[in-house]
Amino acid sequence: MNIPVILTNFKTALSGTGKNALVLAKIHESVSQKTGVSIAVAVQAVDIFRISQEVCIPVFAQYCDGISYGSHTGWMLPEALREAGASGVILNHSEHRFSERKKLISAVQRAKEVGLFVCVCAETDQEGKELSEMCQADVIAVEPPELIGGDISISTARPELISHSVEQISRVPVLVGAGVKNGEDVRIAKKLGAVGVLIASGITKAENPETALLDLAEGAKG
Ligand code: G3P
């Protein structure tokens, strides 16, 4: 799988849940096809099967546990996500962090064992470096929590965090996110060495998600 240059996290947004999630995922597919930019969506586990049947862009889960088949009521089994059609998983998002590093490490291991592409989130460049050294993430996404869901992007408010992250996390490609809204944010992120962006509200709350996504994709092309 190509590394997504735009990874949209639907979280639990109204526009990203159930039937709405399918509509939004189809917009992502169409923009990816029109622009040639690698785009993926991270949806709620219950929406993975339906969406992955209907679109040909990668569908990510937003979380999984480091468990195997057995007695784990209510937990998220990597094999089940894979079988539902997930290609990847986001782990350690700041809204769903692992309480212990060893739990994150085993979730990464299990996800990799079943063939999921793993995006591990970090809140700082330093944490990103540590995580890149202790687990086999395919990409590290650095997002300062205070900017998540806000109007000011990491590219505007903390450009130095993007370049420091890219310097520190030298062995693994870096995505950046928090407050990303437009093509200029993506252009800056890429210019500073990130491979792309992790985004949510810039799309899920956009008046016209297709227009917003086209602008982001243009920014990704430079
Ligand atoms: O997972 C992406 C997310 O945390 C960033 O959210 O709304 O600032 O784009 P947002």
Q: What small molecules accompany the polymer chains? A: SN-glycerol-3-phosphate
Give the class from helix and strand content and strand pairing.
Answer: alpha/beta
The total beta strand count reads: 8
- The percent range for helix content is 40-55%
Largest sheet: 8 strands, parallel, barrel
Q: Average pLDDT value?
A: 97
String of helices and strands = EHEHEHEHEHEHHEHEHH
Gyration radius, to the nearest Å? 16 Å
**Spatial separation of the terminal alpha carbons:** 22 Å
If strands are numbered along the chain, what order do they take across the biggest sheet?
1-2-3-4-5-6-7-8
Q: Given the C-alpha coordinates, what overall shape results?
A: globular
Secondary structure tally, helices: 10
Query: What ranges have pLDDT less than 50 throughout 5 or more consecutive residues?
Result: none
Our estimate of the beta-strand percent is 15-25%
Structure keywords:
globular, 15% strand, binds SN-glycerol-3-phosphate, eight-stranded parallel barrel, alpha/beta, 10 helices, 222 residues
